Amino acid sequence: MATSVPPNSRRALRHSRAVPRRMGQASAGTPVHPTRSRMLLVGGILLAATLGLVANLVRLQIVHTAELKEKAQAQQQVYLRPFVPRRPIVDRDGNVIAVDQPVATLYVHPKLFKEPPEAIAEKLSPIVALSPAELLKRFSAAQSGIELIENLPEDSAARVTALGLDGLELVPHQMRLYPQQELFADVLGYVNVDRQGQAGVEYSQQKILERHVQALRVSRMGDGTYIPTQVPGGFLHNDDLQLQLTIDGRLQRAARAALKQQISRYGAKRGGVIVMDVRDGALLVMASEPTYDPNRYYDFKIDRFRNWLLSDLYEPGSTFKPINVAIALEAGVIEPNTQIYDEGQIFVDSWPISNFDYSSRGARGNLSIAEILEVSSNVGMVHIVERLKPEVYYGWLERIGLGQPLGTDLPFEVSGQLKNREQFLGSPVEAATTAFGQGFSLTPLQLVQLEAAIANGGKLVTPHVVRGLRSTDGKMHWQPDYTPRPIFSPENAQAVLGMMENVVKNGTGEAAQIPGYRIAGKTGTAQKANPNGGYYENAKITSFVGIVPVEAPRYVVLAVIDEPQGGDAFGSTVAAPIVKAVMEVLLASEGIPAQKPTAP
């Protein structure tokens, strides 16, 4: 029979079973106290954490303050150097011949089009000068990032923006523009896609053409945007300086026209013209044909970028004879009235040397120094040089700068070639061939420098094309300084100049005559040297150098034509007419009046 339990007792029993006693728990009525070890453990942990935090704060705030500050600034602050346009280049008269202009590259992203590609092509076609069919073809090349037009003009870019079409992206940048295209290419050179000059003054004057601005310090925000934190003084100031050249645009154009005509007429390989102010070496013209358009340099072969008028060597032939006459006068071995016997043909060290017309003219007999230049006698020049001791003559060739650089401000100049002293003095034929301008080589630009010494009283000036840095109001802020070097006496230079005038009056330079003007000059027709030795059998270089006006010499003009074809291709027929055409424009543009004819 079940035992009954009073109700109160049952409740107490359930309660006692519901909350069992934990191990170590004090019995009812006993006070509860944490153990000492537990308190020490917790306290130790808290103390260690506090000490570690303090130590880290000391490390961060005191020990590594400078280092961490530098790292933070590196992450938050950057220095940006804003893009500034390259300085413009202007010609002698201030006309802009090279300038930066804003353009844009147009990219298309077909996957972002919200209109049919056909509709977008129709709208773009008149702006980018591509047919809708061609545009659709390009759209199909990829889903995104298609470069459509590289150098889109600023106004055309604005028209594209005005269309408001999705999927079109314009990336602005600067492009170097050469408004006259190929006219000044030989002097200017060009700038590549990396904004670096690759030829001409764009290369040699790179540092002057680049504008330099101080870097701007900006802070990078959390969203990636930049905010200026320090603007250097004068940051917003942008100078208006231009690089001014000595080149004359009108003369340059006249020279190119005359060159093209004669090159075409005689089927020549190439040709060049140089005009230089004999007083200071300023170049008014430097033009060669064929040339290239610097706006589209990538369409031309690399050899077009080389200005061969200062980087290619050639044997000048008879145009060097006046220089040899000046050397002989300076050495005192001849006088202007000295007579030289011309046999027509002679042998030097078993080598035959003859005049160009020996087969038809034979011996010419006694000739004055002036007559030797008039008829361009090779034999007469050999006899003049034979009066010089070979070592003295070689010393003079070195003194006038053969084999040495000119120091011009155009890049990639090549020094002439003169045989070493031992080789030159080893055989009399070396001096003999040098007497009529062969057996050594120089650049057309160096020949112009030497001829200018005849015109300016005997001084070597440095050929150059940079006039200086000027502001848009015409004020000059910097100009290069060149010091002339005397080599001939004024008296001897004047004597040779008079002889060269007779060449134009009565000799092989008659084709360069201009009524009312006194012109001095010298023709040259030389065999073309073979790089492997000797000379090409049927290749020659024709040239003519002129000086104007004789009474007060200002300019020397040289025309060189490489490999003209035909039996009548000589310096007098091919090159002299070019010099005459350029001189006519030069005299008119400089306002040099013609002289009144003297009474008979």
**Which overall shape is indicated by the principal axes computed on the Cα atoms?**
elongated
N-to-C CA distance: 178 Å
Report low-confidence residues grouped into runs of 5 or more. Answer: 1-28
The total of helices stands at 21
CATH topology of the largest domain: Beta-lactamase
Beta fraction: 15-25%
The top-level CATH class of the largest domain is: Alpha Beta
Q: Biggest sheet, in brief?
A: 7 strands, mixed
Helix content: 25-40%
User: How many separate domains make up the residues?
Assistant: 2
Radius of gyration: 42 Å
Structural class: alpha+beta
| CATH H-level superfamily of the largest domain | DD-peptidase/beta-lactamase superfamily
Mean pLDDT: 88
Count the strands?
21
At CATH level 2, the architecture of the largest domain is: 3-Layer(aba) Sandwich
Can you characterise this structure?
This protein has 600 residues and is α+β, with helices and mostly antiparallel strands. The chain has 2 domains: 89-110 and 138-245, Penicillin-binding protein 2a (Domain 2); 249-295 and 306-468 and 482-589, Beta-lactamase (3-Layer(aba) Sandwich). Helix content is 36%, strand content 21%. The chain has 21 helices and 21 strands. Strands 2, 3, 4, 5, 8, 16 and 17 form a 7-stranded mixed beta sheet that branches. Strands 10-9-21-20-19 form a 5-stranded antiparallel beta sheet, with helices on both faces. β12 and β13 (351-354) form a beta hairpin. α10 runs antiparallel to α21. The longest helix has 28 residues, at 36-63. The protein is elongated, with a radius of gyration of 42 Å. The relative contact order is 0.10. Mean pLDDT is 88; it is low at 1-28.
